[in-house]
């Protein structure tokens, strides 16, 4: 099924978004208005209409969103490629309780598209391995994802 468009995240995709995976975040470059794409992994869905992610506060993603809040987040899941678009808000320039200075960004979902070309499916989803201490990476990942899921605005 190619090119389907939904207004919210399906229950199946919601479960995929709460597992560690590669997410491609696209923004508009604040300096020259060209497309900008970054791969991230600290990403979670709060519900069918809201996703959050964390990036280093020095990331271009942050300065780009400050100038133009429209973003797209693409991922491989369920034998296809999805693109979630929406309007981003910087909730916190530094998520509390973490050893890194990470910005918390929330996206209000506008639409979810299946962007896989017609007549095909993904046979193997891309994967990755951490290139530093596996135990430290898991501890950091768990802490960041917990902070993303529980952060509330004062």
Automatic annotation (TrEMBL):
Q: Do you know which SUPFAM superfamilies this protein is assigned to? A: FMN-binding split barrel (SSF50475)
Query: Mind telling me which InterPro entries this protein's record contains?
Result: Pyridox_Oxase_N, Split_barrel_FMN-bd
In terms of Gene3D superfamilies, this protein maps to: Electron Transport, Fmn-binding Protein, Chain A
Pfam families documented for this protein = PNPOx_N
Q: Taking every annotated instance into account, which residue ranges of this chain make up the domain Pyridoxamine 5'-phosphate oxidase N-terminal?
A: 13-93
| Protein name in UniProt | Pyridoxamine 5'-phosphate oxidase family protein
